[in-house]
Design goal:
The complex is a heterodimer of chains A (233) and B (530). Chain A is of the alpha+beta class and 233 residues long. Chain A has two domains: 2-94, Ubiquitin-like (UB roll) (Roll), CATH 3.10.20; 97-215, Orthogonal Bundle (Fumarate Reductase Iron-sulfur Protein, Chain B, domain 2), CATH 1.10.1060. In chain A, 30% of the residues lie in helices and 13% in strands. Chain A is built from eight helices and seven strands, in the order E-E-H-E-E-E-E-E-H-H-H-H-H-H-H. In chain B, 36% of the residues lie in helices and 20% in strands. In chain B, strand 20 and strand 21 (521-527) form a beta hairpin. Classes of the chains: A alpha+beta (233), B alpha+beta (530). At the A-B interface, helix 2 and helix 3 of A face helix 3, strand 4, helix 4 and helix 9 of B.
Chain lengths: 233, 530
């Protein structure tokens, strides 16, 4: 069977071409990429590490949808390209430096914590803390097309994970950190939720952050326009 | 560039060291060849040991660890690590680690070789969740990360480390990074067994190889832990937690033939011998039930379905043992000090002698956290004179990288690497004997001589992954030579090192094997052999 890979090298002219490769059946996409590199084309560049879906290195787009190469079974005719939104360095290798910075900007880390939590409290952060930072959600997010300073889904999910952590005492400061370029900019399209290989639901986490922000007195700026009609709710 | 503490490796050991060094107000840089969270630590599933169960005790943890070590652990180190374990869990909890809970306390599960439930876990994502929690805290504390830089060498003058040389992957330029103290936390070298290893791509031991080239002593390299239950086709790990919960190991007839909670070395041998006799071996998780597997082992089920096409809820999982963890490493003391001044090591790349001849499940994450923090603290307090200049080592490495692009490439190194990994698995793996190992050693040395006829086809200076793989292959040849030499000179069976020609333990060898290089020549000996 054949798969097509979108190749990219900025020193070449043209920098980007599609290349078709014959690969054996019944392989994960990552196995197929390794097979190509070992036996057909040493210049093919991609990232991988654990091959078991926990290191977050190998996300790519297959037929337009984000997938972990190690968890996806390659199919005849698949079209493979690098993640979107992030800068492409070479072939399927992309830059994570700028995107990982969103974690700092969203204060997506513990601020003031104590130890100890109950079973039920742990369950509140269990799914969110399954995140492997593979960037599938980030790549799928349409907000970046118009607003590159958006914090994006994984940083917001991680911020939410710390807000609902019962050990965290500074909840307000977490909310303050995700207002600007954050929760109100999300269009709630749900792409992130659909592509997450870990079954995390950033859209719902962002909705929860929005409702918490309202409780802290923040107003959704997208709704404030109604006030101009002179209506009072 | 100059910093107080440079840490190479961004796994759990490296980040634990970084946080501790940062507490002391030092400038800390963590260097990684990928991105910070893309570390082998994320793959650890089973748990992290601490005697927290009311029926357990620190003493029992110490005894279990010592028993499993088969006389090769350092009692002082074992006592320190085991007694610090409850505090380490408390610390991890206080900085946000989402451990699974039971009765409103950190939940515990029983792993092989432990007398009590002792492994704290977070579903089967224990390593992932600890790693990411540490990463979040590093961001909070302002630890600086340098990503996509591959360690080439340690800059040493008069047996004192001054910094490291790094290959910048985006530009393929060699950079030097000078520091008052250098901490290696680069992980183990289990992936030298290639497709017969549970490890991720990258566990080729560049930290150990660089330390050895710099003149540091390495110890106990012959002790490689084979995990008994990896998926037969892909060597993907199925956690010990499955057996801890009652999964059975059975042969083709569906009959049990071993104690599922025996230590990993014993089980791996029992399974290996079955496989050698032409049988197939399976892990039977069916009795655990779908609800339990979904709650406690969700990752295992997903991976079994992807890689083996088998749902463990309904069917038997074909398994075989695979190289999993390297007990040996850069020889260090309790403070992580190597035999080179200002050079420290912690985590799997180091041998602090906590595990001895066989590591217990749940003790490696514990070592990474406890000794990682301790080493980070000692390294931060360390003082050393470092002249800021361009060192000879840096110039030599710059020339070395240039030269690699011009090698003739008449022999394909990837084919050689695959061939070597099979040889190692079959002859320096679960069962070993002298003649076969000597054969492997001569192959390794032949490959070393042929390196100059190998090379790379990809000539691009931009993110050249083939170049990195070729350098890794060079490290593999350097390290496996040392490992095989150490395995040949240990004429006994102990823990993970099983010799068919010397099947008994012989206490003449109750000593640590040591290897080092003098003027490029490999030397080997035992420390404290009778």
């Amino acid at each position: 069977m054949k798969i097509t890979i979108k190749r990219y090298h900025p020193h070449f002219d043209p920098p980007s071409i599609d290349m078709e490769y014959e690969v054996p059946e019944n392989m994960t996409l990552l196995e197929a990429l390794h097979h190509i590199k070992q036996t057909k084309d040493r210049t093919l560049s991609f990232a991988s590490m654990c091959r078991s879906g926990v290191c977050g290195s190998c996300a790519v787009k297959v037929n337009g949808k984000e997938q972990l190469a190690c968890e996806y079974r390659a199919q005849d005719g698949d079209y493979i390209e690098p993640l979107s939104v992030v800068e492409v360095i070479r072939d399927l290798i992309v830059d994570f430096n700028a995107s990982l910075d969103t974690l700092q900007r969203a204060s997506a880390y513990p601020l003031q914590m104590h130890s100890g939590m109950s079973e039920d409290e742990e369950r509140l952060v269990e799914r969110q803390s399954d995140c492997i930072l593979c960037h599938s959600c980030y790549s799928s997010c349409p907000v970046f097309e118009t607003k590159s300073s958006f914090l994006g889904p994984f940083a917001l999910t991680r911020a939410y994970r710390y807000v609902v952590d019962s050990r965290e005492e500074e909840k307000r400061a977490h909310i303050d950190a995700v207002i600007e370029n954050g929760i109100w900019d999300c269009t709630l399209c749900g792409n992130c939720t659909e592509v997450c290989p870990q079954g995390i639901d950033p859209k719902s986490d962002i909705l929860m952050l929005q409702s918490m922000a309202s409780r802290f007195g923040y107003v959704n700026p997208n709704l404030s326009g109604f006030g101009s009609f002179g209506l009072e709710f | 560039m100059f910093v107080d503490v440079v840490i190479i490796g961004s796994g759990i050991a490296g980040l634990s060291a970084a946080l501790e060094a940062k507490v002391q107000g030092k400038s800390v840089v963590v260097v990684t060849k990928k991105y910070p969270i893309q570390a082998q630590s994320a793959m650890a599933q089973g748990g992290i040991n601490a005697s927290l169960d009311p029926k357990d005790s620190i003493q029992a943890h110490i005894e279990d660890t010592l028993r499993s070590s088969q006389g090769l652990a350092d009692e002082e180190v074992v006592e320190y690590v085991c007694s610090q374990a409850p505090k380490a869990i408390e610390w991890l909890d206080s900085i946000g680690t989402p451990f699974s809970r039971q009765d409103n306390r950190v939940a515990l599960r029983r792993l092989g070789g432990a007398k009590a439930p002792r492994a704290c876990y977070a579903q089967d994502y224990t390593g992932l969740k600890i790693l990411h929690t540490l990463f979040d805290n590093c961001i909070k504390e302002g630890v600086k990360f340098l990503s996509e830089k591959f360690l080439l060498n340690i800059i040493v003058e008069d047996n004192s480390a001054k910094g490291v040389t790094l290959l910048d992957l985006r530009s393929t330029k060699v950079e030097q990074l000078l520091a008052t103290s250098i901490v290696l936390a680069t992980g183990g070298f289990g992936k030298v067994y290639g497709a017969f290893s549970t490890n991720g791509f990258g566990s080729y031991g560049e930290g150990l190889a660089a330390a050895m080239r710099a003149g540091a002593k390495l110890s106990d390299l012959e002790f490689v832990q084979f995990h008994p239950t990896s998926l037969a086709k892909s060597a993907i790990l199925i956690s010990e937690a499955a057996r801890g919960a009652g999964a059975k190991i059975v042969d083709s007839k569906g009959e049990r033939f071993c104690d599922e909670l025996a230590t990993r070395d014993e089980l791996s041998r029992a399974i290996w011998q079955k496989l050698q006799s032409g049988e197939r071996v399976f892990l039977d998780m069916r009795e655990l039930g779908e609800e339990f597997i979904e709650k406690e082992l969700p990752q295992e089920r997903k991976l079994a379905m992807i890689y083996e096409g088998v749902d463990p809820v309904k069917d038997l999982l074909p398994i075989r043992p695979a190289a999993h963890y390297t007990m040996g490493g850069i020889d260090v003391d309790l403070d992580g000090k190597t035999s080179i001044k200002a050079l420290f090591a912690c985590g799997e790349c180091a041998n602090a002698k906590l595990h001895g001849a066989n590591r217990l499940g749940g003790n490696s994450l514990l070592e990474a956290v406890v000794l990682g923090r301790r080493t980070g603290g000692v390294a931060a307090a360390f003082e050393n004179e470092v002249v800021q200049k361009e060192y000879e080592r840096t110039k030599a490495d710059q020339n070395f990288i240039k030269a690699l692009f011009n090698l003739p490439n008449r022999i394909d190194f990837m084919e050689r690497q695959e061939f070597l990994s099979k040889l190692l698995y079959n002859n320096v793996g679960i069962e070993r004997e002298e003649l076969a190992m000597k054969g492997v050693l001569s192959v390794i040395r032949q490959h070393q001589r042929e390196l100059a006829f190998m090379g790379i086809r990809d000539k691009s200076p931009l993110y050249n992954t083939e170049l990195v793989q070729f350098i890794e292959y060079g490290n593999i040849l350097e390290l496996t030579e040392a490992m095989v030499v150490a395995a040949i000179q240990r004429n006994e069976s102990r823990g993970a090192h099983y010799r068919k020609d010397y099947p008994e333990q012989n206490d003449t060898y109750k000593a640590h094997s040591i290897v080092w290089k003098e003027d490029g020549v490999l030397c080997a000996d035992f420390k404290g052999k009778r």
